[in-house]
Hints:
By secondary structure, the chain is mainly alpha-helical. 61% of the residues lie in helices and 8% in strands. The longest helix has 25 residues, at 118-142.
Amino acid sequence: MRSSSAAPAAKPPMRDALVAAAFRLFSEHGYEQTTVDDIVSLAGVGRRSFFRYFPAKEDVVFPDHERCLAGMTAFLAADGEEGEPVRRVCDAARMVLHMYTENPEFSVQRYRLTRKVPGLRASELSVVWRYERAMAEYLRGRFAGRPDGTLRADVIAASVVAAHNNALRSWLRSDGKGDAVAAVDHALDYVQREFGSPADPVDGPVLVGRESAPDDEGSPRPDDVLVLVTRRDAPLWRVVQELETALDRG
Length: 250
C-alpha cells in the first residue's frame, strides 16, 4: 500500500505541458494533422493559455530559442573592449549548443520533425539568421572604423554559425550520440584560427617555426626540424591535425 502522506507528483509547468502534448501529437498524427485545439485538449488547458506562450503552432516546436537568443545577445552586449571579439562570438555560439544538449532527446526529436516539414525548416532557418545577425551586429561594433570592418564582421558571424551548425547537425543525425561539445569546439577552433587575433590563440598546438639542421658536410638542409608547441592536455587529434597542416605548407 502507498503511504497516504506521499506527495503527489508535481505537474510540469503549463508551457512544458503544451510542448510535451504537441510533440506527442506530432509523433502520433503528424504535424500538419495536429491542430492547436488538439494540443490544448491533450494538455488540459484552454486556447488562450496556448497563445499566451506561443503566437502560432509552429512556435511550440522552438520553445527555447527566444530565451537563448536573448541570453546570447545580453552576453555579447556585456563584453568590454578588452576581450578578443572572435573568441566572444564563439563562446556565444556555445550557449546555443548548451540549449540543445540540455535535452538531447527533445533536440533529436525536433530535428527529425523539421526535416519532414518544409515550413518548420524555413522557421528554423529564420531563427538561425537571427543568431547570426546578433553576432554580426556585435562584431560590427567591435570592428567599427577598421578597413572592411563591416565585411569582416559579417563573414566571421556567418563562419561561426556555419561551423557550429555543421558540428551540431552531425550530432543530431547520430541521434545525440557522441561528444557534441568536443565536436563544436573543434569546429569553432577552426574559425578562431582563421579570424582570431594572434594574441589570443586557441588552446591547441601552435607552430613556432622550422629550423634547418646541417647535413654531414655542414650545409643546411631545409625544414628538417619542425617545432610545435602544445598544451599538455591538448587532444591528440588536434596535435596531429596541426602537424599535418604545417607539413602540407611545405
